[in-house]
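Most newcomers find our protein records easier to grasp once they have seen one. To make this concrete, we reproduce a full record directly below:

===
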Amino acid sequence: MRPEDQLNAGVRYTVIPRVLVFLTRGDEVLLLHGAPDKKLWAGKYNGLGGHIEPGETPHRAAIREVEEEAGLTLTALTLRAIVHVTLASAPGVLFFVFTGAAPPGELHASTEGAPVWVARSDIAKLPLVEDLPELLPRVLEPGPLIYGHYTFSADGLRMTFESPANSRMPNVAARASSSANSRSVAGKRPCNGES
């Protein structure tokens, strides 16, 4: 098939490809504390990651993002999840979630924020990006590849997860509270695609 045959001329739904990486060291997880002037998630904790550049595989993009945002050089990561984020209007987002053991090395901050090691027991105490309390425990445990779907409604973020070994995982609806330092779960409800 020729490249021009792949173009959709704005007729079909499109997504922006991104990567998200969680490195571990013993019982700690490497998170990025977002810079205060960051466009998305300023002051919030998230994994390392960003956009996939033209010509990159998701794996190569994940390795590059870790090097750019933390100064660590990796050779291998494990793909743990693929999450589709449906937004009110196109494009959506499709992100690939990777995990791996952290190599030795000194962490370096970037314009995106400061990488910090956080004990798993302390993660819930931090101002997290709103999907992390549900996503992070799932991807840090070994198991089959996880497929996720996020949508937004008046009630906030709705998340659905599936995996081949367990065709439906608990559905979760979450919303950020008005406080910058906390996050609340709005109960477990199925994500039925309603807005």
